[in-house]
Design brief:
By secondary structure, the chain is an alpha+beta fold. The chain contains 14 helices and 39 strands. Bound molecules: alpha-D-galactopyranose.
Length: about 725
C-alpha cells in the first residue's frame, strides 16, 4: 500500500517508487503540507516547517491571540495542504466559498481520513484510472458551517504520479457559492525554483519557456473556455539548476480542457505556492443543500533527476491509465487527410483518386476533412448541418465511404460538433442554441459561434446528427475539431445569478457528449483537434487518444512544437503529417526525407495531394511508410529522450531519441534546423542503452559500445543541403 497513516503524529504519507508526499494534521486540526520530493524512509517532516509570525501576518483564530509566541505560527506563512480565502492566509487561495450569509471565511479543520484500493473517479470529469492505484481521502469541515471539503489523492507508484481532486459538499440547509474551485495547493517553504511553461499561438503551440519564480504571482492560464494554443495546462516547477537529467522537477498537469489557471507565487518570506485548477475568472458556482461540487483532477509527477524522467512517467501514465478505448495501445492506421491537399475544393471523384494513389504507397485510412456537409465551400456557413452535400460529393456519404473502402482504405471524417454557423439550418431553427448575449452583437471566431453544450437538447441534437452518420456509414475515424474559443458567455438556460457556471457547465456537457459518442462507437478512432493543437491536454486525451498537434506542418517548426509537447505528452498522442513543400504555413522548402523523419515521432500520416507527387516522391513516401511501420512499436512504446533542444541558441540542430525499455534498440532523429557556414563537428550523447553491450547503427558492420555512445556520444553527419535529417536505428549485437 502506497499510503502510510501514522495515527500517533497524524501524518499521511504517500509513497511512489521515487517520491514521497506528506500531509500532517496539527493539534488545532489544520492540515499542513510537510514535504513533497525524493522518496525517503518515513519520518515526520514537520520539524522543518517555518513557524514564524512575520510582521503583518495574521495568526489563526484557533490560537490565543494574547500569547502568539506559544508554539503558534501564521496561517499566512505555514505550508498548507489546501488554501482557502478569508481565514488570514493572504497568499493565493485554492478554494473561495461564500456562505449563504455572505461571508467568505472558510476555516477547514480535519475530520477524518480513509484509504481505498483503486483510483477514485470524478463524476462527469475525465481522470486517470487504475485498479492498482491507491486513493487517500481526507475530509475537512468548516469551523462554523456544515460545509465539507474532501481531498482526493490518487497514488500511482510505478509512474511517480500523484493526482488530486477536491469535492466541496454542502450539508447546510442553504445554498453556498463557490467563487474559486482550484484543485490543489502546493507550498514549498525553502529553495529557489524555476517555472517552465509552454506558451504559443495558432500554428505555433507549446513553446518552451523558463523563468525564475519571482515575487508576486506568475500565472499560466486561459479564459477562453478551452485550454487554448496560448498556454498549455501543464507546467514544470524545478530547481533553478535542474535540467533534462538532473535536479528536482515537479510536473503539474491539469486533466481539464476548459479555462484554467496555474499559479506559482512567491511571498515576502520567499515561500513558493503553486495552485492550479479552473480559472476563477467569470466562475461562480451555486451548490445547493446536499449537493457536491467536484474540481477537475491535477496530475503531479515528481522526478529526482530532471525532466527526462518526469516526461517518461507522464508518457506511460497517459498511455496506460488515461487514454482509453480500442486504439489506446493498438497500432493505428497510417492516414492521409485531404485538408492541405484540397482545402474546400474537392468532389467525390477527387477524393477517391487520392485514396487510390495513397493505397499504393501503404496508406491505410483516408480522412475527408472540412467541406463535405451542408453547402460548405468556405468557412462561413453550414456548421451545425451535419448532412452530406451529395451534389458536391457526387454520391451519398455511404457510397463515398464504400468507394474509398473498395480502393482498400478505411474511411474517416471531420466534424466540428461544438460550433455553429449563423448561415445554417440549425441556427435558423434554433438561434438560442448558440452562445449569445441578449441585446448585443456577438463576437465571432472564424465567422462562427459556439453551441451551448451546457444544454441537454443541444447535445442531443448534435449527438443524433453525428450518430446517424456513424451508424449508417462505414466510418473508422473521426477528427473532432473546435475552431473557436468561447465568447458571448451566456446560456439562455440559466438564470442571471448562475451565469458564472456556464464555462464549466460547457465542459461538463462536452465531456458527457464525448463519453456518449466514444462509448457508442468503440471501433472508431477519434482524433481531437482545435485549430491544430489548441486543446492538447489530459482532459481530451481521456476521450481521444491522439490530437492534431498543430496546423503548422513545417518540419522545422514542428521540431519545436513536438519537442515542447513531449514534456508531458507521449509520441502516440501527437498527430503528425507529411505535407507539401513549400510549406503552406511558413513557405519553407524542406526535403521530403526531413518531413518524414519528424512525422515518425508522432502518428505519421500524409496531408497533401498524392496525385500531384512525382514518381520519385511516391517512392520516398512508400519507403517512409514501410520504415515507420517497421519501427512503430519502438517509437510508440519506447522511452523518449530529448537530447538537443531546438530552442537552444547554442546548437544548429535538434536531436531526440526513443530507446526500447530493455535498452536493446533505439532510434534517433537528428535535424539541422539552422543553416550556417563552416559547421563544427557534431556529436550527441545517447540515452537508455546497455553500457557494456555493442550496437550496430543502421545495420552497418561497425560496432559501438553502448557506454561509449552514451558517454562520448554518437557522431552525426548531415548532408550538405538545407534542413537535412537523419534517422539512426541502433540494434544490440547479441
Ligand atoms: C482546423 C484544423 C485543420 C482543418 C481545418 C478545417 O484548422 O486544425 O486541420 O481541419 O480546421 O477547417
Amino acid at each position: 500500500m502506497s499510503v502510510l497513516i501514522n495515527e500517533n503524529n497524524k501524518t499521511y504519507t504517500l509513497y511512489t517508487n521515487s517520491s514521497m508526499y506528506q500531509i500532517k494534521v496539527d493539534d488545532k486540526g489544520l492540515l499542513l503540507h510537510t514535504y513533497y520530493g525524493k522518496r525517503l524512509d518515513y519520518s515526520d517532516m514537520s520539524y522543518a516547517l517555518y513557524k514564524g509570525v512575520p510582521g503583518f501576518s495574521p495568526i489563526s483564530s484557533d490560537f490565543n491571540i494574547y500569547d502568539p509566541w506559544d508554539d503558534t505560527y501564521s496561517v499566512c506563512n505555514i505550508a498548507q495542504e489546501i488554501s482557502t480565502f478569508g481565514n488570514g492566509d493572504f497568499r493565493n487561495s485554492a478554494l473561495n466559498v461564500r456562505f449563504a450569509d455572505g461571508t467568505l471565511g472558510f476555516e477547514p479543520r480535519f475530520v477524518s481520513a480513509s484509504v481505498e484500493k483503486g483510483k477514485y473517479k470524478i463524476p462527469g470529469l475525465p481522470a486517470f484510472y487504475g485498479d492498482d492505484a491507491d486513493t487517500l481521502i481526507i475530509t475537512l469541515k468548516d469551523k462554523v458551517y456544515d460545509v465539507y471539503i474532501h481531498l482526493y489523492y490518487g497514488v500511482f507508484e510505478e509512474y511517480d504520479l500523484i493526482t488530486r481532486s477536491v469535492r466541496i459538499e454542502n450539508k447546510t440547509s442553504l445554498p453556498i457559492y463557490i467563487e474559486k474551485a482550484l484543485s490543489m495547493t502546493l507550498d514549498f517553504q525553502y529553495g529557489k525554483y524555476d517555472l517552465i511553461s509552454f506558451h504559443g499561438k495558432h500554428a505555433e503551440e507549446r513553446m518552451f519557456e523558463r523563468n525564475h519564480i519571482m515575487h508576486g504571482t506568475n500565472s499560466v492560464s486561459s479564459t477562453r473556455g478551452a485550454s487554448g494554443h496560448m498556454q498549455n495546462p501543464f507546467v514544470i516547477i524545478c530547481d533553478e539548476n535542474a535540467g533534462e537529467y538532473s535536479g528536482n522537477a515537479w510536473g503539474i498537469a491539469l486533466v481539464y480542457s476548459g479555462s484554467f489557471e496555474i499559479n506559482a507565487s512567491k511571498n515576502q518570506m520567499n515561500d513558493v505556492r503553486i495552485t492550479a485548477g479552473i480559472n476563477h475568472e467569470n466562475f461562480n458556482f451555486e451548490v445547493l443543500p446536499n449537493d457536491v461540487f467536484c474540481t477537475p483532477e491535477v496530475a503531479m509527477v515528481y522526478s529526482d533527476s530532471g525532466f527526462d524522467k518526469m516526461s517518461g512517467c507522464y508518457h506511460k501514465a497517459i498511455r496506460n491509465n488515461l487514454c482509453r478505448g480500442k486504439y489506446k495501445l493498438a497500432r493505428r492506421p497510417v492516414l492521409i487527410n485531404n485538408w492541405e491537399g484540397t482545402y474546400f475544393n474537392f468532389n467525390g471523384d477527387k477524393l477517391v483518386s487520392m485514396a487510390k494513389d495513397a493505397k499504393e504507397l501503404g496508406v491505410e485510412l483516408f480522412v475527408m476533412d472540412d467541406g463535405w456537409f451542408g453547402k460548405r465551400d468556405d468557412d462561413r456557413c453550414s456548421l451545425g448541418d451535419w448532412y452530406p452535400n451529395e451534389k458536391k460529393l457526387g454520391c451519398t456519404l455511404a457510397e463515398l465511404a464504400k468507394r474509398i473502402n473498395d480502393a482498400g482504405l478505411k474511411f474517416g471524417i471531420w466534424f466540428e460538433p461544438e460550433c455553429i454557423s449563423e448561415d445554417s439550418d440549425l441556427y435558423r431553427a434554433h438561434p438560442d442554441y448558440a452562445f449569445r448575449m441578449p441585446g448585443r452583437n456577438p463576437s465571432r471566431c472564424r465567422s462562427q459561434l459556439v453551441l451551448d453544450m451546457s444544454r441537454k437538447e443541444v447535445r442531443d441534437n448534435i449527438y443524433d446528427q453525428i450518430s446517424k452518420i456513424l451508424r449508417e456509414v462505414n466510418v473508422s475515424y473521426v477528427k473532432w475539431d473546435f475552431n473557436s474559443h468561447i465568447c458571448n458567455v451566456y446560456s439562455a438556460d440559466l438564470p442571471a445569478s448562475r451565469q458564472g457556471e456556464v464555462y464549466h457547465r460547457y465542459m461538463l456537457g462536452l465531456y458527457e457528449l464525448l463519453e456518449r459518442i466514444t462509448t457508442d462507437f468503440p471501433d472508431v478512432l477519434f482524433e481531437s483537434c482545435s485549430g491544430g493543437g489548441g486543446r492538447f491536454d489530459c482532459g481530451m486525451l481521456y476521450y481521444m487518444p491522439q490530437v492534431w498537434t498543430s496546423d503548422d506542418t513545417d518540419p522545422v517548426e514542428r521540431l519545436k512544437i513536438q519537442y515542447g509537447t513531449s514534456f508531458a505528452y507521449p509520441v502516440s498522442t501527437m498527430g503528425a503529417h507529411v505535407s507539401a513543400s513549400p510549406n503552406h504555413q511558413s513557405a519553407r522548402v524542406t526535403p521530403l526525407k526531413t518531413r518524414g523523419a519528424v512525422a515518425y515521432f508522432g502518428t505519421y500520416g500524409l496531408e497533401l495531394d498524392v496525385t500531384k507527387m512525382t514518381l520519385e516522391e511516391k517512392e520516398e513516401i512508400k519507403r517512409q511508410i514501410a520504415e515507420f511501420k517497421r519501427h512503430y512499436d519502438l517509437i510508440q512504446n519506447g522511452e523518449y529522450h530529448r537530447l538537443i533542444s531546438p530552442f537552444s541558441n547554442d546548437s544548429n540542430y535538434c536531436v531526440w531519441e526513443v530507446s526500447s525499455s530493455d535498452g536493446k534498440e533505439a532510434i534517433v532523429c537528428s535535424v539541422r534546423n539552422k543553416s550556417e557556414a563552416n559547421y563544427a563537428n557534431e556529436i550527441v550523447k545517447l540515452k537508455g542503452l546497455i553500457p557494456d553491450k555493442y550496437y550496430r547503427i543502421n545495420g552497418g558492420d561497425k560496432k559501438y559500445l553502448g557506454g561509449a555512445l552514451m558517454q562520448l556520444g554518437m557522431p552525426i553527419k548531415f548532408d550538405f543541403i538545407p534542413y537535412p535529417a537523419n534517422i539512426y536505428h541502433l540494434t544490440v549485437c547479441e
